[in-house]
Design goal:
Layout: H1 17-21, H2 26-33, H3 41-47, E1 58-60, E2 67-69, H4 75-78, H5 80-91, E3 100-104, E4 117-125, E5 131-135, E6 138-144, E7 150-151, H6 159-168, H7 174-185, H8 210-225, E8 232-237, H9 243-254, E9 260-264, H10 269-274, H11 278-282, E10 286-292, H12 297-304, E11 314-319, E12 339-345, E13 357-362, E14 371-376, E15 399-402, E16 414-415, E17 424-425, H13 427-439, E18 441-444, E19 457-458, E20 461-462, H14 464-470, H15 485-490, E21 498-501, H16 524-547, H17 559-567, H18 579-608, H19 619-624, E22 634-637
Parallel strand pairs: 8-9, 8-10, 10-11, 11-12, 15-18
Antiparallel strand pairs: 1-2, 3-4, 3-7, 4-5, 5-6, 12-13, 13-14, 16-17, 19-20, 21-22
Helix pairs in contact: 7-9, 8-9, 16-17, 16-18
């Protein structure tokens, strides 16, 4: 290349060929290259270990300009790792607990219009130099090093904000559960923050035999480690459980490293439910587990009678007593749960059945046995959550539903033509008939509510059709309803299958005549201000002119023409003699220049682009206008 042959390996350096021909060892190569070897024999004697032969390499040191052979490095380079660490420590100062920081969001996890950072607070500083961060939605799962976030100068979040939101969402750390456990073991009152567990004193003694209890705890351990693994749990505990058993149960749940909410069945259910968020009370990902010895219905009765939000999708009741029967599932307190199962101890273990804990569920629409056994617990047979939480509503067994409806909702629901009074027709009736064919039920419609209202929350109660459902007089309604926060809290709704939109449509107006563009560049206020300024300047200049010995205008009646010239971009015929009048005229000339320039620019724009009348933007403007409005429904189905 470039007049020379390509060379590889040792031939590629500047050592003469006659020297390379007689070279046999790496030391000879190092001597030929003039490499400095700073490793002395004294160092080898001190270590007592001879240097092993390493791969050969020639390094040019930028700092000192010398060449180094093998693993030997310059003294300047030996200190560079320490300097890098020192610089990193200076740049990234340790964060303090409670300090607000900004955590960058990776590009793959955020959209273009989303914020690039998330505000968080330093929740805990770990021993290995990492930090646990929290937001208003709870603790972040991973730990962060100091260079992964940036401290804020202002304090936007506090530890109380993070803990409060975390507990409201039902997220309790294992350490809090362990504190609760220690308090329970010593028989003292254990009160967790935000009312998650209220004044729980466990001093009772269980009458359950030890052999039976050990089998039940073993089954509970299999359930927790199996189908409940990785799931958020709301754990209700009976006060009759002994401290030793209680500690064992809490340990099973806290060691899962998953969010946990502890609830005392001996506390006030109304007070507890009102302190919880909507996610704890009815989120679909929450599994509510009740470990009990005595009847838990008093607690849940106080909850359902005062708070309509409590509606768990999954409810698992685990009985540690053989005296508690499965017929408590029929109670109204548990009917809000979509899927429910109860583990009960089977007395006769010598029978043909294979396990100590039998599973029961409740089929409310069954014409035969409503309490049905699902079999005995087995780790091999029940491996998923759907194996124990079965569908309790496969069909409705011919049940007749009472609907709170109103035949005033065309085309959804209205009085059927050529049919007796009270028989409805419309989209909703067609949907009900199609579902009835599949689910085996009948229904009865209401022509109108007694108070002729749709349903709103007034004076602490619901009226209209929703009031009939809320009071239990009717099962459900199928009329057209919109979503509100209060309706979402007190009622369950299906997914949207029909959507309506409302808008205003106007004819596009004709552009305004172009001859009006003469006065469009300025608003009426600007025109009035310009006319007032012209009048004031004319009077002031006239008074100054008559006071001068040599007036600028020979005829006082021509003063207004003299003042008007700058506004029309005309030159002045003569200038005033006195300095005061010259300053006055110069100021007016500058003002006129600004006005004429702005007017000319706007005039060109209005002559180029057509001007239209002002469009209506709000309903109030439509009401104040002379337009006549016609309302039409615009509908589409999903």
């Amino acid at each position: 290349m470039y007049g020379q042959k390509a060379r590889l390996g040792v031939d590629a350096n500047s050592v003469p060929e006659e020297v390379l021909d007689g070279m046999q060892t790496e030391e000879q190569l190092a001597e030929a290259l003039g490499v400095v070897n700073e490793v002395t024999d004294t160092e080898e004697e001190e270590t007592g270990v001879e240097k092993q032969e390493e791969a050969s390499a020639v390094i040019n040191c930028i700092s000192c300009g010398k060449r180094y052979f093998g693993l030997n490095v310059c003294n300047n380079n030996r200190n560079k790792p320490k300097k890098m660490i020192d610089n990193s420590v200076k740049r990234f100062q340790p964060a303090k607990v409670g300090e607000t920081v900004m955590v960058p969001v990776p590009l793959v996890d955020r959209g273009r219009a989303e914020f690039p950072n998330v505000k968080a607070v330093v929740f805990q500083a770990l021993d290995n130099g990492t930090y646990k961060l929290g937001t208003k939605h709870g603790l972040l799962k991973q730990v962060y090093t100091r260079n992964q976030f940036t401290p804020c100068l202002e304090k936007f979040l506090s530890l109380d904000d993070v803990v409060q939101e975390r507990e409201d969402d039902g997220l309790m750390l294992g350490i809090m559960a362990l504190k609760y456990l220690l308090a329970a073991l010593v028989g003292a009152a254990a009160v967790s923050p935000a009312g998650t567990l209220a004044s729980a004193i466990y001093r009772g003694s269980s009458s359950v035999p030890d052999a039976q209890l050990s089998l039940q705890i073993q089954v509970l351990q299999e359930v927790v480690a199996g189908i409940l693994s990785g799931r958020t749990v709301v754990l209700y505990l009976d006060r009759a459980i002994t401290p030793q058993t209680l500690g064992h149960i809490i340990t099973l749940f806290t060691l899962r490293d998953c969010p946990l909410v502890l609830v005392d069945l001996g506390s006030d259910g109304e007070e507890w439910s009102h302190k919880q968020s909507l996610g704890v009370l009815r989120a679909e990902y929450m599994i509510h587990v009740t470990v009990l010895i005595n009847d838990p219905r008093p607690f849940f009765m106080s909850v359902v009678n005062t708070d309509t939000r409590w509606k768990p999708k999954y409810l698992l009741m685990f009985s540690l007593s053989s005296d508690l029967k499965s017929n408590i599932l029929i109670s109204d307190e548990f009917n809000r749960s979509e899927k429910i199962v109860m583990f009960n101890y089977h007395r006769n273990r010598k029978s043909r059945f294979s396990g100590p804990m039998e599973m029961f569920t409740y089929f409310p629409f069954s014409n035969e046995d409503q309490i049905v056994s699902l079999g005995f617990w087995s780790v091999a047979a029940q491996q998923s959550i759907n194996d124990i939480f079965v569908d309790r509503f496969p069909t409705f067994e011919g049940y007749k539903f009472l609907l709170g409806t109103w035949f005033y909702d065309f085309p959804y629901l209205h009085q059927a033509k050529n049919k007796p009074e009270g028989e409805g027709d419309g989209v909703q009736v067609e949907v009900l008939d199609a579902l009835a064919t599949k689910l085996n039920y009948t229904f009865n419609l209401t022509t109108e509510p007694p108070d002729e209202k749709w349903g709103s929350f007034e004076n602490g109660s619901w009226n209209g059709m929703l009031g009939m459902i809320h009071r239990g007089e009717k099962n459900f309604t199928v009329n057209y309803f919109g979503y509100t926060n209060k309706r979402i809290e007190d009622f369950d709704a299906t997914v949207s299958y029909w959507m309506e939109g409302f808008g205003l449509a106007l004819l596009k107006p004709q552009p305004l005549p172009k001859w009006r563009s003469v006065y469009y560049p300025f608003t009426p206020l600007v025109w009035a201000s310009a006319a007032l300024a012209f009048s004031v300047v004319t009077i002031a200049f006239y008074l100054q002119d008559i006071a001068e010995t040599k007036p600028t205008t020979k005829n006082s009646g021509l003063v207004w023409l003299y003042v008007l010239r700058p506004m029309l971009s005309h030159a002045l015929p003569r200038l005033p003699v006195t300095h005061s009048q010259r300053v006055f005229v110069a100021s007016w000339w500058l003002t006129s220049l600004i006005l004429t320039t702005a007017y000319t620019a706007n005039l060109i724009a209005f002559l180029t682009i057509p001007l239209y009348p002002k469009k209506l933007q709000t309903v109030e403007e439509l009401a104040e206008s002379n337009y006549r409005a016609e309302t039409r429904r615009a509908m589409r189905t999903d």
